[in-house]
Design brief:
Rossmann fold, Beta-Lactamase, seven-stranded parallel beta sheet, 18 helices, 21% strand
Length: 528
């Protein structure tokens, strides 16, 4: 075991040597003897003894107390004063230096040894306490740092979660706006057949509000016609044995009935488990009763700005197990998918052959293709789209000659022929010739007034709002039909030209009212 080193500071060398001998006798090592305060400071810093025995009265300008002050500033070494002076002033000055003992000369070696041992014990205890304090401070600092880091991460996580929740809310609201703004009927149910989605279109169509429908079991709602059949349909959809396209029969709040053509798809949740069914569709009530009034062997024309209504009508016929032939310039991907479920043939108007479908490049080929198709079964339906393409390649006279031949074939086989075109591609003379040979679809022509489905739908909407004393303006119409204001104005002008509505200015807005002629037209269409 190593001996503790003690530095002796004493200006009387005989006393210092005597003290050294006594210290060595009781087991301590003396690292040095110095006689002045200045030298004591230097030796203490250099030797770093375990303890200093300091005489207060020393040679030179610096006494023992001043030397102890300097030593304490530079290194922590326990100091015991060994002196013959015990006056109050000396004791006061010595106490300020936080010494570890005060031994008065002359002293017994046992007394000195006791003070030394007490000093070592006190110094060791203080050092342990200081180490404990330092470790505690280090642990507190580390824990504080970890807590600050965790708090920072927690704040960031909370911030990210709030941002994610906000983004989710915006996305949910945006999705809900898209769903509510869609012209299609959108209904979804969960795995327990509870309604989760009931958009504005189905609200408007049936009169039943989403707040009265959401969360309720769809099989217990009076809105669905023939619940037993509907339940069987749901079962078949879940089992995957039902065609992708189905029809829903809905009861309205005012005890009317609507027919909806819907596509059904399974909603899968976690682990690809069944979690619900999604229905997206369109109201084909008009098409349903219109088809019943179609006459086999007759050719009809469908005029409009786009071919969507013509395609919808054509596909609705496929749900009644009628074979169909679509002759078109362009085929949309969703139409390709829909036609897979039905007996539809597709032919492209093009000089180039395609991988997926056949092609027709001349009017003779068109007549021949329709002849072969109609000769198979009575009641087959043909839709010709892309008249604009034919008129850019052939003269109107040649085109009409082919129409005469087609109408003869259709009449011979009892088929139904539908021609879709935008009327702006014809001049007045051509339009008159075409109308002489082909007929308008039933219900599009009443009392010499012909309006297409879009205008009819807008007229019905205006009538319904007028009946509820609600103001009808361009903004409301644009929002409901998801079209821009200019398009609304154009359609209103068409209705106004026929005398079916009145547009009046009230303040800053133009307000729309259905006329008596418009009411009469709607009543006669309903009777038809």
């Amino acid at each position: 075991m190593s001996k503790e080193n003690i530095l002796i500071v004493e200006d009387k060398l005989i006393v210092a040597e005597n003290l050294k001998n006594k210290l060595e006798q009781i087991g301590y090592a003396v690292s040095g003897i110095v006689t002045s305060g200045e030298e004591a400071v230097k030796k203490a810093i250099k030797l770093q003894p375990d303890l200093i025995l300091m005489d207060i009265r020393l040679e030179g300008k610096m006494d023992g107390i001043d030397a102890a002050k300097q030593i304490r500033k530079k290194c922590k070494i326990p100091i015991i004063y060994v002196t013959a002076y015990a006056d109050d002033e000396t004791l006061r000055r010595a106490s300020i230096t936080e010494s570890y003992g005060y031994v008065l000369k002359p002293f017994e070696i046992r007394e000195l040894r006791g003070n030394i041992e007490m000093a070592f014990y006190k110094y060791k205890t203080e050092k342990e306490l200081e180490n404990y304090k330092n470790n505690l401070e280090r642990l507190v600092k580390e824990r504080t740092s970890k807590l600050l880091s965790f708090n920072k991460k927690l704040k960031l996580e909370v911030k990210n979660r709030k941002r994610a929740e906000n983004e989710m809310r915006i996305m949910r609201d945006s999705l809900q706006s898209i769903i509510d703004g869609a012209s299609e009927v959108i209904i979804s149910i969960d795995k327990d057949f509870r309604v989760q989605t009931w958009n504005k279109s189905v609200e408007f169509l049936t009169g039943f509000k989403s707040k009265d429908i959401i969360g309720k079991n769809i099989l217990r709602l009076s809105v669905f016609e023939n619940i037993k059949d509907f339940k069987e349909t749901l079962k078949q959809v879940i089992q995957g044995t039902k065609p992708e396209i189905n029809r829903l029969f809905l009861n309205t709040l005012n005890e009317d009935k609507r027919v909806i053509k819907v596509s059904c798809s399974i909603i899968n949740g976690e682990s690809d488990k069944f979690s619900g069914i999604l229905f997206i569709g369109n109201d084909i009530t008009i098409d349903s009763y219109r088809y019943k009034r179609l006459i086999p062997g007759v050719c009809y024309y469908i005029f409009g700005e786009d071919n969507k209504s013509a395609f919808d009508f054509f596909t609705s016929l496929g749900q009644d197990d009628h074979h169909g032939l679509l002759v078109s310039r362009n085929i949309a991907e969703n139409f390709k998918r829909i036609t897979k479920d039905y007996s539809f043939d597709i032919v492209i108007l093009s000089e180039n052959k395609t991988n997926d479908f056949g092609n027709i490049s001349s009017l003779d080929e068109l007549v021949d293709r329709i002849d072969k198709f109609c000769s198979k079964d009575k009641g087959d339906v043909v839709l010709l789209d892309g008249v604009h393409y034919l008129l850019t390649r052939f003269s109107f006279q040649d085109f009409m000659n082919s129409m005469y031949h087609i109408c003869e074939k259709v009449s011979k086989y009892g088929s139904i022929f539908l021609l879709y075109a935008d009327p702006i591609i014809f001049d007045d003379r051509e339009l008159a010739i075409l109308k002489k040979e082909l007929k308008p679809l039933p219900d599009q022509h009443v009392d010499d007034i012909m309006i297409n489905d879009e205008l009819n739908g807008m007229l019905v909407y205006i009538y319904n709002l007028n009946q509820m004393n609600n103001i009808v303006n361009i903004k409301k119409l644009a929002k409901h039909f998801s079209i821009v204001g200019k398009t609304v104005t154009k359609k209103l002008q068409s209705l106004e030209n026929e005398g079916l509505i009145h547009v009046r200015r009230q303040g800053r807005f133009k307000v729309v009212y259905i006329s008596e002629k418009g009411k009469t037209l709607l009543n006669r269409k309903q009777n038809l």
